[in-house]
Each structure stands twice: as C-alpha cells, then as structure tokens.
Design a protein that fits this description.
By secondary structure, the protein is α+β, with helices and mostly antiparallel strands. The protein has twelve helices and 20 strands. Helix 2 packs parallel to helix 7 and helix 2 crosses helix 11.
C-alpha cells in the first residue's frame, strides 16, 4: 500500500491525503498551470477565511464568498495539487437520482444539474460537457423491482419534477438496443450529462485567480497539508502546516472523505472509502472507437453487489472526427490519443473490505482492476466481445473462449476517496460548538449533483456569521420554500443540515 498505511478501523479518523496518489487520467491528460499554484511564496500569517480543499465544493463556495463580499481575503489550502482528490478522480457523471429520492432532494439535485449545465454553456467552459440520457441497468430482479417501486412513489409525490424524466425498460429487445448484456431491466433518464469535472474546476479556479488574486482577495496554496486545527478561548483558530501557521476566525472544510482528520467529531459521521476508476480503450472493431455511446451508464445488482454498490460509465470525447482515421492496431499510443476512452469505475464488491474505512489512494486493487476490464461482460461494445456472436463489416466473429477475451486494454487505472456519510446524506452547515467552523462534505459518491450548490449555500451561511460584513445572502431552508413548479426554487434539503441532534444519533 501507500504511505497512508493500512485502512483505518471503523470510527477512526482519516489520514492525510497520500503524498503519492495514483495517477488520475483526468489530471494527467490535462496539464495546467493551476495544478501546482501558489499565489504567494509563503503563507500569510492570517486570513479572514480559510477554505481547506480545492474540489468542486470549494471552488463554488469561494466564488460565492468573493462575489458577495468586499474587504475579505480568502486563503485556500490543499494538501496536494489543485483538485487532486475526489473531484479530480470521479467518474464524470452529472446525473440527478430522480427515481429514488423524496421530492425535496429531487428538486435540489435537479437544481444543481441545471446550475452547472447553464454555467458551463453560458460561459463556454471547455470541460467535455455533453447532455445525454442516462441508463441504469439492473442484473438483480429484486433490486430492479425496488427501483420501480421507488420511481412510482417519487412520481406520485413529485409528479411535476419526475413526469417524463424516467422510463422503465423491461423488453429484452430494447435492453439489447441499450447494449446491456443479460440485464433484467433498466431505467432510462432524460436529464443527465457527462463531463470532465477536473477541467471544469481548473477553469473555474483560473477564472477566480484572474479576477481576485492581484487584489489579495484570493490566495491559493497547493501542496500544503493541514496537520491540525487548534482553537482558542478567544475564538481564533490556528491552522498548522509544515510551512507555518495561519490565524483565522472562519474556516470552511471542503475535505469530504478526509474530514475527520481535522475534525475528529466527524469520525463516525463521514468515513473514507476507496473507490476505483479506469480509462479503457475501446476495441478497434467497436463502433464506439469512432463514435460516442449516446448515454452514460450505471450498473446495479451485478453479482456480488449489495444495494449501495454500483458501477458507472461515461465516454471521453473522440479527438479525431475523421471516420476514416484507422491507426495501426499495434500503435497503442496513436489509438489512445484518438480519445473515446471508456471511463469506467466501480467494482467495489471485489475490493479488500469493499474499500470501506480506507483513505489511501496511492494504490489500485488488482482484483477490482481485473473486473473493470471485463466491461464487455455487461455492456455490448458491438465487436462481439460479449457472449454472443455478431457480424461486423461482413465478418463473423467468434464468441470469447474465457474471461481473458473480455479484457479491454487499460490506458489508466487509479483510485480516489469517497466521503461516506453515516446516514447517506451530505453534511452542510455550521459545526455545532465550533463557532466560525463550517462544513460541506460527505456526498457518498454522489457529489456532482449536490456539491456545487452545497458549496454556495455554506458560503452564504459563513458570510451571515460575519457581523462586520454587509452582505445580502438571505437563505431559505427547505421547509420555508413555497410550493413551485420550478426546481430553481429548491432549497437545501433538511436532511443535509448539520445539527446537534443529527450528529448525536451516531456519536452516542
């Protein structure tokens, strides 16, 4: 394993992020000057606000802080490079879970989706964003029946939000057209997208630095792990790093799976969980080596999965639009440079300890990697790499003899750390008994349709606590929102609020 050692035990605090993480394809394929950025050669001795973490929660929170206030300086710290943790390592899914949430959460996730989509499209952010439909395939009949019942209940409770969003697919011929291999059913959703979260966040940080760094309002310091947060009776906090200390009265933790390292009272509330991703090269015989799969995928109920486990798949853009481009099959570098990688993650059922209580992303699990490379056992790539023979360009191809014939070529394999919440919901708000300390974390692997507006929400809460700052950032909690037909009016779900009562349920 890596320098973080063996997995921690249940309810133990997370480690610092590994100093030698596995190499995420998102990051290595997009070199940029923001990655190792330091706004100043040394740390400032004090700051109005310190934000720890540089993922999607942090960048949306910092944008909100700086846009709504004047005279504040915000220091942002990351243990490693910019966006090097979960956001820069996840699957690239932006899919609200419409079929299995109650109305308030559905509305919130849809609002996050539209907020991110509109931001990207209006500002023309180059992050491989693609609107598409999402398909969740099921290989377990019980799980499929449960999903159908959950969809029925969601539709009855929130018809305006769910109407026309999701359709149930059970017809074998249609399942085949969806490229699913031996699935018992599927849910196809219209509101979905894929993107490079890393490219999005790096672009947003560069934009913030361009606007606020020269004035001293924003100071971004990478490769500066925070070892400890010390509090004093005066209300000040001391941020302790190997590069020095920083005094502040307000802190925002956007640290997700690593939260308990700095906030031990969250050790039972947000636990680290190792997850694994791959970038797979489509076979040259597959049509998806030349054109994009028209949907993103989720895979549920595959043998060994429990109800919480799933796989997910999106496809990276194809860089060469020339359909006549056929690189030498032996030239793997040329094939990889063509793009179209299948970004496939999951397989947690094959991981040691299912990846639970593991904050070390410095290594990959070989059994998980082997499973992920057998994607064609679940998704027909149109090149006869599943269990049935097909005809391709007039040539009949033989079915695979064993699992080795299902193994796709691997371009990259890496891990990342999920913040697994004790009750399945994020934790967003002020931390009780810690004046000036705020948190937005614990997305349980479902951060893309939750983190952006959670970051903005907690930033407004923080600004409201600054008595000397005159800002108009009135917030509505969910129970205060008036009924509306628009998801744009959705407020933070009450389940996400950080309260003493919620914490005590797990800290007894």
């Amino acid at each position: 394993m890596g320098d973080a050692g063996v997995p921690i035990g249940p309810n133990e605090t997370a480690t610092l992020p590994s100093s030698h993480p596995t190499k995420s394809f998102w990051q290595t394929s997009h070199p940029n000057p923001v990655s190792h950025h330091r706004s100043t050669p040394s740390l400032p001795s004090k700051a109005s606000i310190v934000v720890i973490g540089t993922g999607i929660t942090s960048v949306f929170a910092v944008d909100e802080l700086l846009a709504r206030s004047q005279g504040l300086d915000v220091l942002v710290l990351d243990a490693r490079t910019t966006c090097s943790a979960a956001t820069g390592r996840n699957g690239g899914h932006l899919v609200p879970l419409v079929h299995e949430q109650r109305p308030g959460i559905i509305a919130w996730e849809l609002r996050n989706y539209h907020h991110v989509a509109n931001l990207i499209e209006s500002r023309k952010i180059p992050c491989d964003f693609r609107r598409l439909q999402s398909c969740i395939g099921f290989w377990n009949q019980t799980y499929f029946e449960e999903a159908k019942e959950a969809l029925k209940q969601a539709t009855e409770l929130a018809p305006q939000q769910t109407n026309g969003q999701v359709r149930v697919v059970e017809d074998p011929d249609e399942l085949t057209r969806l490229n699913l291999v031996h699935a018992v059913g599927a849910l196809v959703q219209t509101t979905a997208a894929s993107l490079s979260p890393y490219k999005l966040v790096i672009w947003l940080w560069q934009d913030l630095l361009d606007r606020y760094q020269a004035s001293g309002q924003l100071n971004l310091q990478t490769e500066t792990p925070v070892n400890e947060i010390q509090s004093s009776s005066s209300g000040d906090y001391t941020i302790v790093t190997h590069r020095g200390t920083v005094q502040t009265r307000h802190i925002l933790l956007a640290t997700n799976g690593y939260t308990s390292h700095l906030l031990p009272c969250f050790s039972k509330l947000i636990s680290p969980r190792q997850a694994q991703m791959t970038a797979l090269i489509p076979p040259q015989a597959s049509p998806f080596s030349r054109m994009l799969i028209p949907q993103s995928y989720g895979f549920s109920g595959v043998a060994g999965m429990d109800r919480e486990m799933s796989d997910y798949l999106v496809q990276a853009p194809i860089s060469d639009s020339d359909s006549n481009f056929h690189p030498d099959p032996l030239d793997r570098h040329a094939i990889a440079s063509q793009g179209g990688q299948l970004m496939y993650g999951g397989g947690r059922q094959h991981a040691s300890g299912n990846g639970n209580y593991n904050s070390d992303d410095s290594y990959v699990d070989p059994e998980v990697e082997k499973y992920l490379r057998t994607l064609p056992a679940r998704l027909d790539l149109g090149n006869s790499s599943n269990t049935t023979s097909r005809s391709h360009q007039g040539q009949t191809l033989s079915p695979p003899k064993d699992d080795s014939d299902l193994q796709l070529e691997l371009q990259a394999s890496w891990t990342g750390i999920i913040g697994s919440s004790a009750d399945g919901h994020p934790w967003v708000g002020a931390v009780p008994d810690h004046p000036g300390l705020f948190i937005a974390a614990g997305y349980s692997g479902h951060g893309m349709p939750n983190a952006p507006l959670s970051g903005r929400h907690v930033a407004r809460l923080l600004l409201q606590s600054l008595k000397t700052v005159d800002v108009d950032c009135t917030l509505l909690q969910e129970h205060e929102v008036q009924p509306s037909n628009s998801s744009a009016d959705a407020a933070l779900p009450i389940e996400y609020l950080v309260t003493k009562e919620r914490m005590q349920k797990f800290n007894l």
